[in-house]
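pipeline/complex-builder :: batch 7 item 3
reading input block
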Amino acid sequence: MSMPATPHSGFPSRKTPVRRRLFLALTGEYFWFYALLLPSILVLIGVILIPMVFAFQMSLGNTNIVVIGGKGSIQSQWVGFQNYLSLFASPLFWQAFRETVYFWFVSIVIEVTLGIGLAVLMNQKFWGRKVFRLIVFIPWAIPTVVNSMLWGMIFDGDNYGALNDLMLRLHLISTQIVWLNPMPVLTQVPWLSNTLSYLGANTAMNAIIVGDEWKTLPIVAVLVLAGLQTIPHEYYEAARVEGASGWTQFRRVTLPLLGPILTVVLILRTMQLLRAFTMIFNLEQFGLPLLSIQAYQQAFSFGSFGTGSAISFMIGIIALLIAFVYIKQLYKGEM
Amino acid sequence: MRFIHAIKPRRILVYLLVVIVLFWTLGPLYFLIITSLKEYVGTITYPLPWLPRPFTWSNYSVMFSGYSPGSISYRFLHALRNSIVASTATTLINLVLGSSAAYVLSRAPIKGKNAISMLFLASNLLPTVALIIPFYVLTVTYLNGLQLYDTNTLLVIVYTSFSLGLVIWIMRGYFDSIPIELEEAARVDGCGRLKALVRIILPLTAPGLLATGLLTFLTSWDNFILPLVLAPDSSGYNLPFFIYSLNGQYLHLNNQIAAGGLLSSIPPVLIVLFFGKYIVSGLTAGSVKG
Amino acid sequence: MLKNVAINLSALALLAGSILGTPMAQAATAHQSPAKPIVLKVLYMNQAGYTTQVLRQMAAGFHQEYPNVTVQFTFLPYGNMHSAILTSAAAPNAQYDVVLSDLIWTGEFAQRGYTIPLNSYIDADIKNAAQIPGSVWDGFKIGGRIMAMPFLANFQNFYYNKKLLAEAGFKSGPTTMAQWLHQMEVLKAKKIVQYPYEDSWTQAEGLVCDYVRTAGEFGNGNLFNAQGKPVMNQGPALQALEWMHMLYAKGLANPNSLTADEPTAANAFASGQAAFNTNWTFVTGIMNDKTESKIVGDGVVATFPVAPGTNPMTHSASISGFQGLAIPANTPAAMRPWAWKWIQFATSPKVQAQHLHSQWPVWSTVASSAAEKRLNPAWKVYEENLNAVYNRPAVANYLQVSSIIQQYVHEAIAGTLPVKQAADDMVQQIEALK
């Protein structure tokens, strides 16, 4: 895993003086190393780091589009951290924050539990198992926008929405439910309903989570399945010999060994959920104010690029922090 | 298997769950398909017809016929072209750049290469929204001279930046698993370093290349927010944006939207059906050490 | 009288122009083509209003009159228009020479200087300005500056299904709010329809339109008073909020209204599930189209019911959705005369008269022409509704104000907030914006 630092690999050791190393770098075989790595580094700097810095700079000012003397430009009036402070003082921002967290948390919980369950199911031996696995994987391939439109039709609040139609026909409900309207849930229990609404729960959010899960559960399940398949049978045998029941086997053998793959899944999905935009934008436009929706609205509807940058910069920082925690854990596990 | 009298209920449970999952998976797909084959009135009547009645192929034919500037087929075919071009270009660039960088990060004893790898991975995990605003501003103002706004080129550049990190991360895992002795043997035989890389190492990492290539293609194909902000006109926009624009007509022609959606889904579904297991093994290779 | 003044002014301008040799003189002489071929870039939307085919026809006609000018269109969904105009304004040189401007952007574009006032062009070339109703001009005027030339006179009509009403025992549509409420209650009680009414109350711009119109029906559709203060928590605006909430709570309005946009509401009406529809003029075409409607022949266009004593001049109240053509401020000076030429052409009575089936014209002369009367038997109703329109507030930060209005009106209707509290919070938040 770790690379030998011997001259065999072709690199000068660190003891070599800088000038000589530079000389060696630009000539001979080491040249290829730098040449191969450089483009990617350039992409990283130019297309990721510089925009991030620029976003931060914009967020420190009232950044607007102005047209002066017949020429357009973007101008930024420096206001320090004012944009961030007014965001922190704005209840709408915190609601967006809570709703984003709710969306992330509920999605992850559903994915991990149902994902493991589905993977276990896919791991069983039954007739048609191979075809079953292929079919289960299909929803993940549907483009997100198409998925949004599909669930928009299913959750349509009129009586011809697929779900309403089914439920009305089965007499489960007497009149259509407007699934995609952000209404409080569990209104029969007021205190619970208020708490949930505070945390960001509402019917529209839950409906969107369901639609999103339809598309993303398969990839989680398939990844976990791959993890399951690497667990040697002997472990289960050993556990059975010691008298462990099926459930105990699951807890003591399966779950711990799924650790690495679950970490991968958590990282990937957390990042994707934090940037959730497409489905919510297509179904609710600005009605469900998650953080990414707010950033977009501030910048492109209101023209306040400073505020929009501030929000998106914060999303970026949160994501990076979580990412570094996860990645460090991942690399620790590998050493 | 274990206890004879427990087999039957367990088998029944398994099959029951399988059926439930099949309904859950195929139900919405069935609904999408029949909606795309209905006339408009069939989508807004109650009780909703669960067979495609009234039946028509017109939702599909409108995507391909009547080609004139501004017509639906014009927009669809342009979106299709843009999607194919952008996704393919991004994939190729990512593979070349990404595997090169991964090779270097795997072999070279550069100080802090782990940090660089982590940085690449982190860049992939950045939310798109975080970068879209500065990107937009840069493209439209400072880099305006490059005339990049609303072009496929710009989209390819941005798509690349988002996928590169994952490609490098996965490919590095593959390179790490190939012993250095193989390369050294080739070089002893007279191959240059680059030749050794291309002729011997790369073929061994082919599964990784396939996995990352397909993943990149799928994520580029799927992207919506980037064309929404950076390329909303038919010279740059892609299929997801086209579907979104279909929704804005005088009437929500759900049948047309469904047809467009299904057509857009065909390439990714085919990829997943035929190459799904490579994608999965590529993603897991980095974490599951056998 | 105004006509005479206008003629005199333009004669004066012609004289002055010919003496001074200003571009105004060029504008006054017709059909002078540019020396070299040029391409005029126009931004328009690809939904609602004129279709792309109609616009291309217009461009072809324009090309015949000005052979060296080719019009190149960019069509975008309405939702992307605003940000596309912003994008164009941010570039050193405008991406478009002519843009379609919604009236709600007038305040913002004027204050930020994204588009130029067209007063000088209009004074020079539009001789019959008085033939465009004052309410249409008002949509694009701010502080005396006209920020766009009226192009599309979109407004709302009141539609009802006479067959359903007849089943309930009503011979004609309602003229007062009380009558309307009564008719809806009877329709529901007799189970003729489950939900007599559906409107576009999803949290989007359409909700503000419906709110302003309803306030207009109760007497005053201006959400900001003469001093520029928001007044949603008093008078007609508050009554309108209570009315909308009441309709939802009583089940007279389809609960789906809360996620419905204009096309969805039109659907409900055209499929015979709703007896009333308050929507833009496109519904007239849809309700009589066999492929899209189940109620062909049963739909009636009418003026809006209003509260007693409201709007004595017009006996109706409506909401404007006007669109105009504007010239971006960073369009090169050399292109501006030709941009204006296109605007003048596309908005001219002659061209609008050729496309009566597409849109209601902005010119009252064309609107009351024999051709229009033949095409549209309900033309008088259209005229009355157009004369009764209210415009949404022409403030510079309108989009932010609108976003707050949308949020609170939506919550008030749904009942998540009590109506009065929602109105008070709305006012408070809007004042906090300034």
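note: Residues 72-107 of chain B form the longest helix (36 residues).
queue -> next item
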